[in-house]
Design a protein that fits this description.
The protein is of the alpha/beta class. The chain has a single domain, classed as P-loop containing nucleotide triphosphate hydrolases (Rossmann fold), CATH 3.40.50. The chain has helices spanning 14-24, 45-52, 66-69, 115-119, 138-147, 166-173, 189-212; strands at residues 31-39, 58-63, 82-94, 98-104, 124-129, 151-156, 181-184. Strands 2-3-4-1-5-6-7 form a seven-stranded mixed sheet, sandwiched between helices. The longest helix is centred in the last third of the chain and has 24 residues, at 189-212.
Length: 220
């Protein structure tokens, strides 16, 4: 059976999703921030969002089918029975004043058209990586570099994946020296929170550097 050419995947409006979630949970927060969780197919984005979200996460998961198998290489994620076809959404409060909204992108290249909308208004991104499939990470890295959106690399823990130091991962992915690389277990809330803290610290450093940078000289 082949996948119909006219298949339609509903695209949730990220703004509407966040608004509904915020109204469903009592909060006194006065500020919010949006963070994107990106990466290749089957690297743990849905698990990452679900581990840290304080609300029941919204996930547009669909069962893996034989038609999808023709398009998505699941040979190295053979325990994966479902896949995100639109986006994941979670919410995390930081103290009493700040709420962080987490938006997970779909990992398949055929849903890449949704990335612009999911990433709209985001402060930064966590790009999740399986060290056994580093090539699957390049699309996300290239995307956020082209948009000028800061990101950190989070290598997720898988039994089949080789261990590598942050420096080895940085070299393999040809990352700029300032891009943080951390290890994460997407199943563990504390590990996920530390990855988010690393991104926030990275954003603060970049902001501080921008504040002291000399103004560009205008060309005459």
């Amino acid at each position: 059976m082949t996948e119909p050419d006219n298949i339609h995947v509903p695209t949730p409006d990220p703004g509407a999703v966040a608004e509904r979630a915020a109204s469903a949970v009592a909060t006194t927060a006065t500020r919010s921030a949006k963070i994107v969780i990106a990466g290749g197919f089957g690297v743990g984005k849905t698990t990452f969002v679900g581990s840290v979200s304080e609300i029941s996460p919204l996930s547009t998961e669909a069962s893996m089918t034989s038609a999808a198998a023709e398009k998505d290489d699941a040979s190295k994620v053979d325990t994966k029975m479902s896949t995100t076809v639109a986006m994941d959404f979670g919410r995390l409060a930081v103290g009493q004043d700040i709420v962080i909204y987490l938006f997970g992108t779909p990992g398949q290249s055929r849903f890449a058209f949704m990335w612009d909308q999911v990433s709209l208004g985001a402060l930064g991104a966590v790009i999740m990586v399986d060290t056994a499939r580093l090539d699957d990470s390049h699309a996300a890295i290239d995307y956020f570099e082209s948009k000028g959106l800061p990101f950190v690399i989070a290598t997720n823990s898988f039994p089949h994946s080789p261990l590598g130091s942050p420096e080895q991962v940085r070299d393999a992915l040809a990352l700029a020296p300032h891009v943080p690389v951390v290890n994460v277990d997407a199943r563990e809330r504390s590990s996920v929170k530390q990855a988010l803290i690393t991104l926030i610290e990275h954003l603060l450093v970049l902001r501080a550097q921008a504040a002291v940078a000399p103004p560009a000289t205008a060309l005459v």
